[in-house]
Amino acid sequence: MVLIGILAVLFLALMILVPVMEKFAKKGDTAEQDYRKYSRWILPLVALVLIAQLLKMLFA
Fold it and tell me: Which residues are listed as membrane-spanning (predicted)?
């Protein structure tokens, strides 16, 4: 029963957040430049997290 309650809260939050995010999203070229700026950091951060998890598994 608790799981259903948690899923219901998450679903309602999603139904509220998606329209709000679409309303305040950046439009045009500035949004594309922002995506490029952030996408440059995604793979190094993923690699860092994978290495941290590997070290955690090895030494735990």
Answer: 41-59
